[in-house]
Design a protein that fits this description.
alpha/beta, TIM Barrel, binds beta-D-fucopyranose
Length: 433
């Protein structure tokens, strides 16, 4: 039996655009994901978040499910496009319901749904967006800060910058390497400005969530890829400087204002880590390079060996362990939280109505054990959040990929607890395995 430290925060995560629906209700303005998903050819089968899991209307039922699972915390995101509209009241209702159920709300301010009006002015390539974000952060805190103890500024700025502006696989669908680096820098500036604003307003615990991908394979390409995916955020945020190799690389495409670094390097209380899988890379002369890692000509990302999830992502729990240990050694002093980990599988509803997702249970079990092993090696890990509570809109894949502990039937909006949900409830009750 393995047991976790007392008070370990077991939770599940979602994001506004992926679950809420109610896309044009109560004054919500369009976001870049509304525009993108309504643009033919961008999202598989033309799926959109217009209705999604209808969580905006069904939140009470969903909070009841969380309570039944015994969740200690719920990580959700606040839709910036609802800020300043009557629809923002939704978060009052949600947070109150969570608190009533004894579930700690962990709010992310930006999980990719930038108001389209800001995109029309340049989005994250426009420095001004960072200042608008800080205003929004302060405003959201003014409304909800009396009830939300943990605030996360950004979810996965790497994806916002390099998938949004590099490959264009995500909204706003831009393909421009210089813009991707500029966006990354402005996202970090936005974070720093928001941390200052939240701190001044008395926010309890402040964090940012990064997706960190361990790079396996030939050492030199792996080092460059690690710089472009991981250290490009870790170092400015936690050390106040771009790594030399990353800065030299970035300058091939554009330049950034290094005077922003002290603003970016605000003390944070928790570093959120989203971990799914490592990337395998190798030197391959003539390889075109990957648009999400600008300037990686001659480097190939090779398909994983061994088992993969429905996303094609390799299953490597040992990389979660080494990642957590690495973070605690190389960036000491910042407590860690796994803010996302989970897997998509091609779930089936059996004749008896049950979803026997043994593959997901095995995935989660392996990663929870890896997290525990990292604690044993000294990592200051405070919590673990499954992605996701519910099946939901998986960005460019639409509703085709199911990550939920809870199945959503999109025709009826019926929720079914999968076997993994029952497994997770038992884990939480025992605080271990
Ligand atoms: C992460 C996102 C989350 C979800 C999972 C599968 O990159 O933060 O919204 O899509 O991947």
């Amino acid at each position: 039996m393995i047991t976790f430290p007392e008070g370990f925060l077991w939770g599940a995560a979602t994001a506004s655009y992926q679950i809420e629906g109610a896309a044009s209700e109560d004054g919500r303005v369009p976001s870049i994901w509304d525009t993108f998903s309504h643009t033919p050819g961008k999202v598989r089968d033309g799926h959109t978040g217009d209705v999604a899991c209808d969580h905006y209307h069904r939140y009470a039922e969903d909070v009841q499910i969380m309570a039944d699972l015994g969740l200690k915390a719920y990580r959700f995101s606040i839709a910036w496009p609802r800020f300043g509209t009557p629809g923002f009241d939704f978060y009052d209702r949600l947070v109150d319901a969570l608190l009533e159920a004894g579930i700690a709300p962990v709010a992310t301010l930006y999980h990719w749904d930038l108001p389209q009006s800001l995109q029309d002015a340049g989005g994250w390539t426009n420095r001004d967006t960072a200042y608008r974000f800080a205003e929004y952060a302060a405003g959201a805190h003014a409304r909800l800060g009396d009830r939300i103890a943990t605030w996360t500024t950004l979810n996965e700025p790497w994806v916002s910058a390099f998938v949004g502006y590099g490959s264009g696989r995500h909204a706003p669908g831009v393909r421009d390497h210089a813009a991707a680096f500029t966006a990354a820098h402005h996202l970090m500036l936005a974070h720093g400005l928001a941390v200052s604003a939240l701190r001044a307003a008395g926010a309890g615990s402040i964090s940012i969530t990064l997706n960190l991908a361990p790079m396996l394979g030939d050492p030199e390409p792996a080092r460059l890829m690690d710089g472009l995916a991981n250290r490009i955020f870790l170092d400015p945020l936690l050390r106040g400087a771009y790594p030399d190799d990353v800065l030299a690389h970035l300058r091939r495409f554009t330049d950034v204002n290094l005077d922003d670094l002290p603003t970016i390097n605000q003390p944070i209380d928790v570093l959120g880590v989203n971990y799914y899988s490592p990337k395998h890379v190798r030197a391959e002369p003539g390889a075109p390079g990957d648009a999400e890692h600008p300037g990686t000509e001659g480097i190939a990302i090779v398909p994983p060996e061994g088992p993969v999830t429905e996303m094609g992502w390799g299953v490597h729990p040992e990389c979660l362990e080494s990642l957590l240990v690495r973070l605690s050694r190389e960036y000491p002093g910042t407590p860690l939280m796994i803010t996302e980990n989970g897997a998509a599988y091609d779930d089936k509803v059996d004749e008896d109505g049950r979803v026997r997702d043994a593959d997901r249970v095995a995935f989660l079990d392996g990663h929870v054990r890896a997290a525990h092993a990292a604690i044993g090696q000294g990592a200051d890990l405070r919590g673990y959040f499954v992605w996701s509570l519910l099946d939901n809109f998986e960005w460019a894949h639409g509703y085709h990929k199911r990550f939920g502990l809870v199945r959503v039937d999109y025709d009826t909006q019926r929720r079914i607890l999968k076997d993994s949900a029952h497994w997770y409830r038992d884990l939480i009750a025992a605080n271990g395995l």
